[in-house]
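Ex. 9. Protein: Carbohydrate ABC transporter permease.
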Amino acid sequence: MSFVAQKRLTLFDWVNYSLLSLFSLLCIFPFLYVFSVSFTDPEVYVPLRFYLFPEKWSLASYSYILSTNSFLNALKSTTFITVVGTVLNLVVSFSLAYALTKKGMPGRGMMMGFIVFTLVFSAGIVPNYLLVKELGLLNSYWALIWPVLTNAWSLIIIKSFLESLPSELEDAARIDGCSDLAVFLRIVIPLSMPAIAAFTLFFAVTHWNTYFNALIYLSDSKKWTLQVLVKTLVIDTDIAGMAGAGGDEKSVPQETIRMASIVLAMAPILVVYPFLQKHFAKGVMLGSVKG
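Predicted structure tokens for Carbohydrate ABC transporter permease:
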């Protein structure tokens, strides 16, 4: 005999839900303020005033931002780093993780030991900088891509996911005459699409939010990423450094320009995430249990 028991909300539940709701509102308010100020018409904007919703809507700040050479250069740089870096991350991570699933691979145990070792110890900022310098990658986009082609955490999760795939499918493909590369491309990759979608989001967000590495490796302001440019706009008191504007920066309040730049830096990830959310959750869970 089965029945559905309806749980009554206790006093603890009400207090818990109320505190969580309040905390959620506190987290949402800063985002609402940023969006509101960025869309506020410069003619009605009043400094040091809290805007929950714009009194008068305007795209003047976005028009100004998108007409500047600095922002367009930063957008191109970040897009290139994100697209190329994410593709290379996926290729290196999944191919290496697939190789590590093969118990007969020579040096497999030693390689896994080196990978796990990096989870505990890292070289540090100075050795990494010297390595990038000796490789001739300073002031180059590749300085933000080659050193982070993969990482131990991603390899371990992907390896666990690939080991959960039915080995019988690979055996059947080899009986049909497929090589190891054909098995990887025709069998493993199609079955790994949920994990690929999840790690595409992981890698893309990481590259899109690149800040510290870009700050220390890129000396040319024309190659700055969006995050470095946004930091400069938010912290610096003068927006006039954004050369090449299509209009006069004095006609647009600096605060609305800063908020508009923050929104534009966040927008791509906010737009892409809902489409990958289903695969994101599924991909992470599939790699958690083998069987």
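Check your answer against this statement. Confidence is low (pLDDT under 50) at residues 1-5, 243-247.
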